[in-house]
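seq as requested:
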Amino acid sequence: MRIVAISDTHTQHNNVKVPDGDVLLFAGDGEFHSNVDLIKFNRWVSRLNHELIIVIAGNHDFFCEKHPNEVKGYLNKAIYLKDEQFELPNGKILWGSPMTKTFLNWAFMDTEENLDRYYWSKIPKNTDILLVHGPAYKHLDTVSSGEDHLGSKTLAKKIEELKIPYVVHGHIHGGYGIEKSEDTTFINCSLLDEDYQLVNKPVVIDV
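struct tokens:
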């Protein structure tokens, strides 16, 4: 099964050249501030050539946080996940969450303690692909200067504990790329750089 992963398009999704694949994963930050933004995004994904499209929100997607019961109605050409799992056509288990650790006053954020207690604790033990907006600590979680690690320490601990094979995220634009550890392949699929220029390509993996 071929998976195409993208994130952090920030309203520029119409300019993205999306490769063909079986499943498209969107890891948040389309900048959904209103239902109109979701309608436009939904119209875009309906034109893509993928059997399945799975979407989570990110810290810029305030409408999704404020109106959680309305999102799936507007995003009816995709599967929208909020702290829940989905079984892919090949039987692999994916779990998706928009949460990141608190930084200023953005959407879908909480303390490390609360993330661990109320969100990461829900991740099933048999998860094959973890789709989250924010990265795990020390895994593709630095800006281009590379000074500070911005990822979640409790998420990193949970990933190590469960030995999740694939972790797909965005949020930290400067961390774009792929990193492999002994048990996990980490994928930061942010398409925009830190200046919000569309410079990165969608990430394609076969699972």
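The chain is about 20% helix and 25% strand.
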